C-alpha cells in the first residue's frame, strides 16, 4: 500500500535534495462524543453474568363494588377476590459480539518520532474498542426506536396537512397552520395520557393507567422538527407553542425512521421495475434506489460486511444498504444477499414519537476485555466480548405495558 500524500516530505528551500523534517505528530482522540443525551442512555438496562432474562409483569386496576353494612356480601368474609392474571414479558440477553484488535510495540514504533506519540496512538486504538461498542449500541437502539410501532388503541395518529398554496405568503401561512396542527396533536396526546379516562388507550393491554408528562420523551424526525421550528413558526414559537408541549426533545436523523421489510410485506415495496415507493425489483429482489433515492431508501438493522458487484462494503445499523443488494430469505454476504427482517425501508411521513421511558429495555451485559501476548510475532491480541438483547429477534426489547405513540403525516 503506497504512502499517503501527506507523508511526502517538503523539499528544503535551499537544498532541494533534502526534505524538511516533521515538527510533531498528533493522533486524534476526540472521535466519539458521549454527551449523556442519547436514546441509549434512556433505555439501557444492565444485565448480569448469571441468567439470561429479565421478567416484567403488568397488572390491572381493581374494581370497586357497592357496600352496605350487615349485607350478605359484607358479612361473607371468606369470599375470595383474586386479581386478574398479570401480563408477563421477558427481555433476553440473546446475542454476543466481539471486537478484535492487534497491536505491537516493536516495528510500529518506527512510524513515530517519540515514545509519547506512539503511546498516544496505541491508547487511541485501544480506546476505540469501547467506542466501537458504544457506536454499535447507540446505532441499534436508534434503529429499534425508529422502526417500532404499536398496534393497539390510539398509539398511531396522523396529521392532515394543508396543501395547495402557491404564492409565498400563502405558503408561509399554510406552513404555520400545519405546524400548529402538529402542536395540537401533541398537546391532545399529552392530555390523554395524563388523564384517568384515556390513558388506557395508550398501552397494548388496554389497562387503566394514569401517567405523568415527565414519564415520557419525544423523539423527533429531524427533518420534521427542523422545518417546523426553523421555517414554519419562527415568529410565534414561544412558551405557549410546541416547545412547551414537547419539552427538550430527542432528535434523530430522518433515515432512522421506517418499516422493517419481512417476507410478508416485501411485495408492498416491490415492482417489476423499481419505482417510487417500491425500490425492490420483484423476481430478483435487487435494491434499486434510483437517483437521489427517488424510489426509496432501504437501510440495515445489522452490522455486516457485504460484497455487492465485486465491491466490499461495511455497513452499520442505520446505514443505507448498497444498491444492488439482494433481499432474500437467507443471508449470504459474499453473494450480496441480506435476509428479510434485517433491513427497513425509510418512512419520511413519521413526524415524531412520544415514548414512555420504560417502553424499551435494551439489556447490555457480559462485557469483558481480554488480551493475549504472542511472543513469536511480538504482538498483542485484544478482545472485547459483549452480550446484549437484540431488538429484532426473539422477544425483542419493547414492553407492551407502556405507551409507544407514533404521529405521522397523513
Report on this model:
- This protein is α/β, with parallel strands linked by helices.
- It has helices spanning 39-43, 72-75, 115-147, 168-193, 222-232, 242-246; strands spanning 44-46, 53-58, 87-92, 95-104, 156-159, 216-221, 250-252, 258-260, 270-271, 280-281, 286-287, 298-300, 304-308, 311-315, 326-328, 337-339, 343-346, 350-356, 362-374, 379-388, 404-409.
- The strands form seven sheets. Strands 5-21-18-6-7 form a five-stranded mixed beta sheet. A four-stranded mixed beta sheet has the order 1-19-20-4. A three-stranded antiparallel beta sheet has the order 8-17-12, with no helix packed on it.
- β13 (304-308) and β14 (311-315) form a beta hairpin.
- The longest helix has 33 residues, at 115-147.
Present the secondary structure layout.
Blueprint: H1 39-43, E1 44-46, E2 53-58, H2 72-75, E3 87-92, E4 95-104, H3 115-147, E5 156-159, H4 168-193, E6 216-221, H5 222-232, H6 242-246, E7 250-252, E8 258-260, E9 270-271, E10 280-281, E11 286-287, E12 298-300, E13 304-308, E14 311-315, E15 326-328, E16 337-339, E17 343-346, E18 350-356, E19 362-374, E20 379-388, E21 404-409
Parallel strand pairs: 1-19, 5-21, 6-7, 9-10, 15-16
Antiparallel strand pairs: 2-3, 4-20, 6-18, 8-17, 10-11, 12-17, 13-14, 18-21, 19-20
Q: What is the CA–CA distance across the termini?
A: 53 Å
Give the total of beta strands: 21
- Helix content class: 10-25%
Strand order, sheet with most strands? 5-21-18-6-7
User: Mind describing the biggest β-sheet?
Assistant: 5 strands, mixed
Structural class: alpha/beta
**Strand residue percentage:** 25-35%
What does the radius of gyration come to?
Answer: 27 Å
Q: What is the string of helix and strand elements?
A: HEEHEEHEHEHHEEEEEEEEEEEEEEE
- Residue windows where pLDDT falls under 50 for at least 5 positions: none
Shape call: globular
